[in-house]
Amino acid sequence: MAIEADKAVVGGQYFKSLWEQFPEPRRAIARGYDVVVLQEDLPETKVADFKEYAVKFVDDIRKTGARPVLLMAWAYRRLGWISMAEIAQAHREVGKDLGVEVAPVGLAWERVTKERPDLNLFKEDLEHPNIHGTYLATAVVYATVFHRSPAEFGYLPTGITPEAGAFLRKVAWETVESDSK
């Protein structure tokens, strides 16, 4: 299976600022895709803004015939005003209200952190993903988009052992399966 991907990213921004100040993400959506994955940086913004601007982005995505998916990010210490449970709840509510699937990356992240504290997912800044965190996020998005286990991944990036890769793919699939029920 061949997958083409693109991105429209403005570092450190969230839905409200992307909608109001940066036209590139909306131009990218208008180009048309099969699936558009939206990631809100919920620890950096307000839940009310997330809900309001998710509606706008999802409407734009649906106008192109694409399938929107919300990527649930993870909590981090610097901005401890919102817990992982609250981030998950906000994403579930928006997903339900808009009829949009949620890729529960944050929940998978939380599980890996509890079950394998030796397997660090963060870069040095303790907010952004390192190679393990990126691999986990990719596996969760894959499982959400394709409704298939990422166990078949043939790709294992440098720095991830086969054992760690298998564990991350397993957690990704089990998290998607349990969160979609």
How many extended strands? 3
As laid out across the biggest beta sheet, the strand order is 1-2-3
Count every helix, treating DSSP H or I runs of 4 or more residues as helices. Answer: 7
Strand content: 5-15%
Q: Roughly what is the average pLDDT, rounded to an integer?
A: 93
Task: Classify the secondary structure makeup into a structural class.
Answer: mainly alpha
Q: Tell me about the largest β-sheet.
A: 3 strands, parallel
Rg for CA atoms: 16 Å
Distance between the termini: 27 Å
Q: Percent range for helical residues?
A: 40-55%
Order of helices and strands: HHEHEHEHHH
Oligomer: single chain
Give an overview in words.
- With 181 residues, the chain is mostly helical.
- It has helices at 15-21, 24-31, 47-63, 84-98, 105-115, 131-146, 162-179, and strands spanning 35-39, 67-71, 101-103.
- Strands 1-2-3 form a three-stranded parallel β-sheet, with helices on both faces.
- Strand 1 (35-39), helix 3 and strand 2 (67-71) form a beta-alpha-beta unit.
- Helix 6 (131-146) crosses helix 7.
- The two termini are 27 Å apart.
- The mean pLDDT is 93.
Describe the secondary structure blueprint for this structure.
Layout: H1 15-21, H2 24-31, E1 35-39, H3 47-63, E2 67-71, H4 84-98, E3 101-103, H5 105-115, H6 131-146, H7 162-179
Parallel strand pairs: 1-2, 2-3
